[in-house]
Amino acid sequence: MEKVALVTGSSSGIGYETALALARKGYHTFATMRDTGKSKNILEAAKKENLKLDVIELDVDKEDSIKSAISKIMAQKGRVDVLVNNAGYGLFGCLEDISIADLKQQFETNLFGIVRLIQETAPIMRKQGSGIIVNVSSVAGRIGFPGSPAYISSKFALEGLSESMRYEMAPFGIKTIIIEPGVIKTNFFSSMRVEKGKPDSPYKDIIDKVYKGIKMMAEMGTHPSEVANTIIKAIETKEPLPRYVVGNDAQMFLEAKKMKTDIEFENYLKKELF
Questions:
Q1: What is the CATH classification number for the domain harbouring 91?
Q2: Of 163, 164, 221, 170, the residue nearest 192 (C-alpha)
Q3: Domain extent at residue 32
Q4: CA atoms within 13 A on the CB side of 111
């Protein structure tokens, strides 16, 4: 029986690499994206390797789009074995410099879009008696950094959601996995929306320093293929761990947080970022 995978946000970065990696492992992969006009590269790569990969339009912000995509997959294959929730973006800006509307939109995409997809696919997986849900979070889902409280809050929420899901869905044969990458080398800033704030913002110095620090980290960041390989490793494990950390920077920060008191870690982070 051919297994089926659905990956969101597949036009570039982690989603692109993960969709191809799953197809290489024999999954009939549905690489979804909001704008299918950006599908040229992934379709060419799949064709070159003779992979079973289809591109479907899916906007995680729109319930109708999600329902339509799932209906197409079920009509064609009749099952979903792996769901990789990767689509999302980061809003960069201090709390006073972002609007409530911007904050709501951050959660709409990074959290509620994932909830919508899970609520559509979980019944399918329960009926099958098996399935794997991979939620791509971030090291920022475990550590609060200055300069992007909206993004970080959405990832903290995703971590809590995922932990709860593991308990709720395990009895039905559904496994939940959290992936926590650090800074991604090739597309980190292309997936970040920078809120400049007011010219006289009291947070301008903080934003400038943090932005410069993250930019330096991105130059040595993790390649999306490393995240994709970790996802493959996790789903092929009989009893996957609750979470997988990817990237030297993510490992470094989490190890420091584990070993230090809260105040010690706060001082350490200030030194690293500022």
A1: 3.40.50.720
A2: 221
A3: 4-273
A4: 20
**Tens of pLDDT along 126-149?**
999 999 999 999 999 999 999 999
State the pairing for strand pair 4-7/28-33: parallel
- Count of the separate structural domains present in the chain: 1
Alpha-carbon gap, residue 95 to 187, rounded angstroms: 24
Whether the model clears a pTM of 0.85, i.e. scores above it, the answer is: yes
- 151 an active-site residue? yes
DSSP 184: B
For residue 20, the one-letter residue type is L
Q: Is 222 left (phi over 0), alpha (psi -120 to 50) or beta?
A: beta
Which stretches does DSSP call E strand in the chain?
4-7, 28-33, 53-57, 82-85, 90-92, 131-136, 174-181, 192-194, 243-246
Q: Which of 16, 27, 151, 244 is catalytic?
A: 151
Residue 213 is predicted with a pLDDT of 76
